[in-house]
Amino acid sequence: MSQSRVALVTGGTGGIGTAICCRLASLGHRVATNYRNEEKALAWQAELKAKGFDITIVPGDVGSPESAAAMVRGVEEALGPVEILVNNAGITRDTTFHKMSAMQWQEVINTNLNSCYNATHPVIEGMRNRKWGRIIQISSINGQKGQYGQANYAASKAGMHGFTISLAQESAKFGITVNTISPGYVATDMVMAVPEEVRAKIAAQIPVGRLGTPDEIAYAVSFFLPDEAAWITGANLSINGGHYMGW
Ligand code: NDP
């Protein structure tokens, strides 16, 4: 096993986040995530504990700089300095642009993109001082190719990769790698909320012939972590069953 690290996975209680938390814990890392609803998070934590995964939970809203900074402090008090950060928390507020309210635009940009500033800024100085870090953004296929009804979401997800490739340049000489993962359609609540006939049409466009699983995204996160991956930085890893084969 590679060295045990402290990992913070934002939005860890969701579909993909849960798989990432469990995979990192199974690799021997000390893992934390944030919550907004304590009761829900305690139930989630107990369920994982029963499966043998010990995940620390701290309060935190990644859309607020103050709350995200307090979240990082909470993790550092419980486990020690954050060495691995996975910016995974995200939302959708879908509608065509001409009907989109300023609120629908701002909520998505704030949760998906401003969160990258809010959660990363409190950990970057420590990573630079310790000369080791891993920062991974969970973006989306729709940030690469756009999507009808998702101008806000696609803009936020494309922005995450712009953030990645700039921070990767600034951080490389400090032993910190910064990468993006762009998942295609994964069978979580976010996607299962889409009507079944629409999902069937999506699956028909995927060369592999099915939606992805959260574990397949979690596997990719773990790929970026070991010292053997130290030369991989500024990358955008598409994991989408062949649905989109661009950058
Ligand atoms: P889920 O809706 O299952 O989980 C989202 C998680 O983010 C939840 O834990 C949620 O917590 C948390 N969250 C949302 N807003 C905030 C906030 N302001 N502060 C803190 N936490 C917040 O989504 P998925 O697991 O499907 O998606 C995870 C990531 O993967 C997202 O960024 C998504 O855009 C991306 N993605 C998903 C794909 C898919 O097909 N599912 C495809 C491509 C990308 P709470 O319970 O409090 O709301």
Automatic annotation (TrEMBL):
Domain Ketoreductase: 5-184
PROSITE patterns: ADH_SHORT (PS00061)
EC id: 1.1.1.36
Keywords for the protein's UniProt record, in alphabetical order: Oxidoreductase
Molecular function via GO: acetoacetyl-CoA reductase activity
A single GO cellular-component term on record: cytoplasm
Pfam families per the UniProt record, alphabetical: adh_short
GO aspect biological process, one term: poly-hydroxybutyrate biosynthetic process
Highest taxon of the lineage: Bacteria
Transmembrane segments annotated in the record for this chain: none
Keyword Oxidoreductase part of the UniProt annotation: yes
Family in the record: Belongs to the short-chain dehydrogenases/reductases (SDR) family.
Name the record gives this protein: Acetoacetyl-CoA reductase
